[in-house]
Amino acid sequence: MDYYKVNSKNLSLLKERVSVPTYDRTNVKAGILHIGIGGFHRAHEAFYTDELLNKNSNSNWGICGVALLSFDQRIYQTLKDQNGLYTLIVKELDGTLTKTIIGSIVDYLFAPENPIAVIERIANPEIKIITLTITEGGYNYNEATGEFEIENPSIQKDLKNPNDPKTVFGYLTQGLKLRKENNVSGCTIQSCDNIQGNGHVTKKMLLSYVKHAEPELVSWIESHVSFPNSMVDRITPATVSADMAALKETSGIEDAWPVVCEPFKQWVIEDDFIAGRPAWEKVGAQFVEDVVPYEKMKLSLLNAGHSVLGILGTLIGYSTIDEVVNDTVVSAFLEAYMEQEVIPTLGDLEGVDLNEYKKSLLQRFGNIYIKDQVDRICSESSAKIPKFMLPTVQSQLKDGGSIELAAFVIASWAIYSLGVDENGTKIPIKDAVKAVLHEKAVAAKSNPKAFLDIESIFGSLADSESFVEVFTKSYQNIMQFGVKKCLIDLNSKF
Ligand code: CS2
């Protein structure tokens, strides 16, 4: 078999082997600027946008992908070498691989190399929508105060060097300022991160920064920029070398960075696009008036479910999510957590059967071909837990509901943060506040509550006597009997 690299020149050859764009990419305009071109964006928004270009000859919405951090140089270089093309490999439930070359990313910029080019592109009249996947931690939000962390050193740096920004806030502010100065019409900023009210949070955080950086821009943004909330969903594990090898072996395609994902996908969006938008509804996105309840459901069941499996699974010694959920002791615990502690906080969701949703999640987590890494799930837990689990705990505390299972998971996280699993193997913790987590985890050995004192994560949770009590009990039990034995005891109770 001949091997072909992924690039525009080879598209006609690649077409013999996998699906390729059926549209003429030279006619596609970058009306969307996307910041954060990681795997998730390429499995989700870029996929939907590509589907639409294939399906609807009237659409010419394409994406200009921005790699913001120096760390993103490799993905930028890969996209550049491959003319923005890459292979999306969907791992079906029966193990088949569905491969598609995605063509919707038609331009790409590497911000550290040329910050002014990014600022100018944000101000370019052809850009109508700016979408973001900058991770849950990227919003610079303080959990304890609910406010923007103006003291963050990177933010302070951007305030002092407006023309050489490093953070998304510095870039957006300078780009929007130029837009205003050039009398360019407004645009939409759409977050695609897993945050409750992601549009509201983006607006609040951006305006907080702008108030300090360019106060006279605040009212322009308020009247010229819309911030729709959206719920995004598609499990996208990190690509591993075996994925690249399988692509090469099965189709003779050499792709330096394909993306792998599950078949399921969902995108629920508020229809608030001030400067127009692609007809994403034609390819399965749902436009609704109020996305907040859907976001809440997804974050507190799927994402929290992931964290539960990731943390407990790591301590027990598993490496992938399917291994963890296929351990019936852990999955029974997860089901009990969802039923007893999460679903009671969700209220009625029109058109959604929560029990069915729960079942479908267990099936998705159990897909043995996905091999989603527990390390990926547990990375940056300090930004995830407050968004995925703590709102549920607060709501249950308020209503006098059970918090025992959530407390067990957070106690497990305290033990996880010591950095060694129950078999004595080192845990590769990836977290922006890794040092603080470790320090508090050590203190928790003699006084478990010390872990809850991290205010920037837990807010005032340590003031709740009932939470501290069950948390402490769980901590001591796990230390004494191990996760698995405790889960068996808890499962018999619920
Ligand atoms: C995961 C998400 O990072 C995580 O913790 O829960 O990346 C999850 O896979 C996606 O949100 C699925 O839509």
TrEMBL record:
UniProt entry keywords in alphabetical sequence: NAD, Oxidoreductase
Domain Mannitol dehydrogenase C-terminal: 290-478
PROSITE patterns xref list: MANNITOL_DHGENASE (PS00974)
Source taxon at top rank: Bacteria
GO biological process: mannitol metabolic process
Residue ranges annotated for the Mannitol dehydrogenase N-terminal domain, each copy included: 31-282
Gene Ontology MF terms in the entry: oxidoreductase activity, acting on the CH-OH group of donors, NAD or NADP as acceptor
Signal peptide: none
Enzyme Commission (EC) number: 1.1.1.-
Pfam family, one: Mannitol_dh_C
SUPFAM superfamilies: 6-phosphogluconate dehydrogenase C-terminal domain-like (SSF48179), NAD(P)-binding Rossmann-fold domains (SSF51735)
Family classification: Belongs to the mannitol dehydrogenase family. UxuB subfamily.
This protein's name: Mannitol dehydrogenase family protein
